[in-house]
Amino acid sequence: MKKRTIWILVAAMVLTFIALFFVQVRYIRLNIAIINNQFNESVRRSLYQTISIVEENEALEYLAKTLDDDSFSGKATNQIELEEQHQLLKRRIDSLAENTDPSKSKNFISSQARKRSTIEETSRYLQEQYQQRYSRSRTILEQAVFRWLKGSEEQSISDRINFEDLNIILETALHNNGIGLPFHYSVVDKQGKVIYRYYKNVPNEQAVQNDNVYTQRLYPNEESSNPAYLQVIFPTKKEYIDHSLYIFLPSVIIVFLILIIYIVAIVIIFRQKNLNVMKNDFINNMTHELKTPISTISLAAQMLQEKGVSNMSPESLAYISNVIRDETKRLSVHVEKVLQMAIFEKENSTLKLTEIKVNTLIKDIIGSFSLKVTNKGGKIISNLKATDDLALIDEVHFTNVIFNLMDNAFKYRGEKSLILTVETYNVKDNLIITIEDNGIGISKDDQKRIFEKFYRVSTGNLHNVKGFGLGLAYVKKIVTEHKGTIKLESELNIGTKFIISIPILKNYEL
Ligand code: ADP
C-alpha cells in the first residue's frame, strides 16, 4: 500500500470517528434536554391539577356546609327525603309569595282553585311553581358563593386547606403523571415563610441542599394581598435523569469499541508498513552480502581455470582453496539468515521435534565456537549441571538459537576480551539454559524491544557489527514454539545474560 493511501485512510478513520463521537454527544445531550423537559412538564401539570382540585374541594365543602345550614344540604339519599325537601322548598316559596303580597293571597288562592280544574292550567301552574323554586335555589347558591368568596379571601391558608388532603392529592397527581420520585413540598407565603412542610421518602438534610424548586401559586385567580405558594422539590431528580441515560450505555460502549478497533487497525497498518520497508532493506542488504562471496568464489574459480591447477604453486593453491572455503562459509551463514527470515512467514510451527540431550548439543556447539572466541583472546566457561537434559527439540533450529546467542555475545563483546559463560540446570520440570557475556550490555529501553523483528540497538552500528536485527526475533520465536520462555538480564558495559527455559521430557515419559 502506498504511503499516501495509508495516510488518507488514517485521516478518514480519524475524521469519521470524530464525527461519530460528536453526533453521539449531541444525541445524548438532546435526550437529556428532552427527558428534563418531560419531567418538568409532568411536574407542572401535576401541580396545576393539584391546585385545581384543592380549589374545587374547598368550594364543594363550603357549599355543602352552607346548604346544610339552610336545611338544604343536597345530601338526599332516598325518595322520601327528596319528597320532604321538595315540600320544604314549596312551603318556603309559598310563604315567600304570601309574605310579599298578603292582600292578593286570598284572591290568588280562590282564583287558583277555580283555574286548577283543567289539566292545561294545572301544568302551567306546576311550571310556574318549579320556575319559582329554581330561581330561589339559584339565589341561595349565588348568595352562598358570594359569601364564600368574600369570606375565603380573609381566611388564612391553613384554615382553608386541609394539608393531609393536600398530601394525598399532590401524591396522586404526581403518580398519575408518571412521577414516582421521592419529593418534599412546602406551602409558603409571599415572604417565603413556611406554612406547611411535607417529606415523602426524603431524609430532611438531603432535602435542604437541593435548589431545583417547582413553584405554583395556590388560588391563582384570587387577587389576594398575601398569596400562598406550593413549592415542590425532588432531591433525586438529577440521579433520575442520569439514570435514564443508561439506555445509551450500549451505544457508548460500541463507540469505544470502534475507537479501539480503529487504533488497533492503524497500529497494525503502520507496523505492517514499517515491516515492509525493513523487509525490503533486508532483501537489498542480503543480495549485496550474497553477491560478494559469490563473486569472490567465481574469481577464484576463474583463476584456477586460467592458470590450470598443475601450473600453480602449492601456496597459491592453498590460498585460493582457503578463499573458497571462507567465502562458502560466509555464503552458508547468509543462506541460514534467509532461512531464518523465512521462518517468520510461516503461521504454523514447522519444527521437527526429536528427543535430544541438550547438554550434549550445547557441548558440540561450544566445541565448534570456541576457536573463534579463543582466537580473539576470549574464553568460554561451560557449566552444564542439568541432570534432566532430555527434551523434545528441533535440532537444527535449536542449534541456531544457541549459536545466535553465542554469536551475539561475540559480536557485541566491545573492547574487552570475551568471557562467555554457558550454564544449564533444572528448575522443577524445566531445563534452564543461560548464556552470559561481559560485553557492551543493553540499556533498559532497548531491552523492551530487543526481541522485535528488525530491531537493532543504534549503538550496535557504532561497533561496526553487521546484522539485520533478526537474530533475537528468531530466537524468541523458536523458543516459544518449543513451549519455552526467554528473558534477559543486562547492564550497560557490564554484560548480558539470556535465560532460556524449556520443558524437559520427564513429564512425557511413562
Ligand atoms: P543483529 O545482531 O543482527 O543486529 P539481533 O536480533 O541478534 O540482531 O540483536 C538485536 C540487537 O540486540 C543488536 O543490534 C544488538 O545491539 C543487541 N544485542 C544482542 N545481543 C547482545 C549482547 N549479547 N550484548 C549486547 N547487545 C546485544
Please give a structural write-up.
- The protein has 510 residues and is of the alpha+beta class.
- The chain folds into 4 domains: 3-155, no CATH class; 159-237, no CATH class; 250-343, Signal transduction histidine kinase, dimerisation/phosphotransfer (DHp) domain (Helix Hairpins); 353-507, Histidine kinase-like ATPase, C-terminal domain (Heat Shock Protein 90, 2-Layer Sandwich).
- 63% of the residues lie in helices and 15% in strands.
- It has helices at residues 3-69, 79-100, 102-115, 119-154, 157-160, 163-176, 204-209, 237-244, 249-307, 314-345, 358-375, 395-411, 444-449, 458-462, 471-481; strands spanning 183-189, 194-200, 213-217, 228-233, 353-357, 379-384, 390-394, 419-427, 430-437, 485-491, 495-503.
- The protein has a 5-stranded mixed sheet, with helices on one face.
- The structure holds adenosine-5'-diphosphate.
What's this entry about, in short?
The chain is α+β, with helices and mostly antiparallel strands and 510 residues long. Helices cover 63% and strands 15% of the residues. Helix 1 packs antiparallel against helix 9, helix 2 (79-100) crosses helix 3 and helix 12 packs antiparallel against helix 15.
What order do the strands of the largest sheet run in, or round the barrel if closed?
A: 6-8-9-11-10
Q: What's the CATH H-level superfamily name of the largest domain?
A: Histidine kinase-like ATPase, C-terminal domain
Strand coverage percent: 5-15%
Bound molecules: adenosine-5'-diphosphate
How do the helices and strands follow one another from N- to C-terminus? Answer: HHHHHHEEHEEHHHEHEEHEEHHHEE
Mean pLDDT over all positions: 83
